[in-house]
């Protein structure tokens, strides 16, 4: 089979210290995969490392060099250059599990050979937090039937509030990403949320494979999901949230019920993330930004505002006064301890 089954795009910016582990694990897919190392204007030896891999594995690895445009723009570049039937993003400080990777490729290869239609494959990811010995795994057991192609009309789709889907969970059909016209904004963090949200309304067929594929490394200094970093970049998170609100408001009335529920819960979680960072900061300016975000939601779609304002997250992070914020911060710390994020 000459056709590449899977394109793996690895966005890199000054990743010289850790990208080799990511690339080496991706290379375990052999000739079934295409690996695009997208050097996003790095100033260290990232470009040299990428070129060395491309020279050593010319039928598998391509090094793409571009001006700095941020993580989302590197993903856009990967989509534009991808030739594999399916597409996955792996961040340069993360990596794929060897055995789970084999199983995923086996399933994807079989689907291609049998000419089966599949728009997105979901698998598990591991919160690989540095100081945490027992790693938490995000699984979707009970949310979807396993190893079956289903549609959004299937009543067995039942994601709970805490089965959070990230970029790390999904493998999209490449042509779907190209056809839907996804363009992630430049120089903006947290656009991986848009990567889940916007293409998903074009998904007709989906499957869940219950394997722990993706190691999501948490703990590197300066990482975008570091709590202090998120506080500094709160305006970018707010921009992403407003984009999600606008997109969902424009499309929600035409969505199948199960897709509506999935995207609603996703938006609920994103409102929680943005609000919790503001509350945890103990910064009055960030408290103000939180209020502005909820006002934007209300002004954009009053009906949607009522729905989100009365969820567990909506109530918790809109409690008034010092006591209310203390309660919200305590809840945040509890979930942080349980789930191992940030």
UniProtKB/TrEMBL annotation:
Domain of life according to the entry: Bacteria
CDD domains linked: Glyco_tranf_GTA_type
Keyword Kinase (UniProt): no
Glycosyltransferase 2-like domain boundaries: 7-167
Alphabetically ordered keywords of this record: Glycosyltransferase, Transferase
Signal peptide location: none
Entry-linked PANTHER family: GLYCOSYLTRANSFERASE, GLYCOSYLTRANSFERASE EPSH-RELATED
Protein's recorded name: Glycosyltransferase
Source organism (scientific name): Coprococcus hominis
